[in-house]
Amino acid sequence: MFKDHHYLSGELSNASRCYVGLFGGNIVAFGSAMTMPNGSLNRAWREHRTVVLPDYQGMGLGVRFSDAIGQIHLEQGHRYFSRTAHPRFGLYREQSSLWKPTSKNRKLRTDVNHKNMFNNHYADNKRVCFSHEYVGKQQTGNNNDS
After folding, report:
1. How far apart are the C-alpha atoms of 105 and 139, rounded to whole Å?
2. Cα–Cα–Cα angle for 87, 39, 108, nearest 5°?
3. Which of 12, 28, 83, 105 sits CB 3.0–4.6 Å from 23 for a disulfide?
4. 121 CB contacts (<8 Å, ≥6 apart)?
5. Which pLDDT tens digit goes with each residue over 20-69?
6. 116: pLDDT strictly greater than 60
7. 3-139 is classed CATH 3.90.1150.10
8. What DSSP state is assigned to residue 142?
9. What whole-number distance in Å separates Cα of residue 145 and Cα of residue 104?
10. Per-residue confidence at 99, pLDDT binned at 50, 70, 90?
11. Where are the domains of the chain?
């Protein structure tokens, strides 16, 4: 239902957690997250896919759906990260108190070259991407992002 609508590919990792988003009783969004193996981060997850069906795009559902998935992980005691080249997602996160930029935000990742890892989707060393960590509602105090 969603595989033809993601800008990278319709492939999913077998290790991903999957979520669906409903709007007016209709399934309109799909999201997935994966553990983020890293020697210095414990209990870290990363966004793997977020897709909103074309008829529902442009309504702000994708960023809110991504926020909700991040909040679920935060409430489970995990850290949650996202790296995207999508301008809507990146610019939203730049302005949201729910997300904080990582040290790699808006930087060309010349320090990575995972040619076969994650099917070339995670470590993109050919374009500048947005990179953020979800910090959520619990740490932001008065939040006007919801």
Report:
1. 21
2. 30
3. 28
4. 8, 9
5. 999 889 999 999 999 987 777 889 999 988 889 989 999 999 999 999 99
6. no
7. no
8. S
9. 24
10. very high
11. 3-139
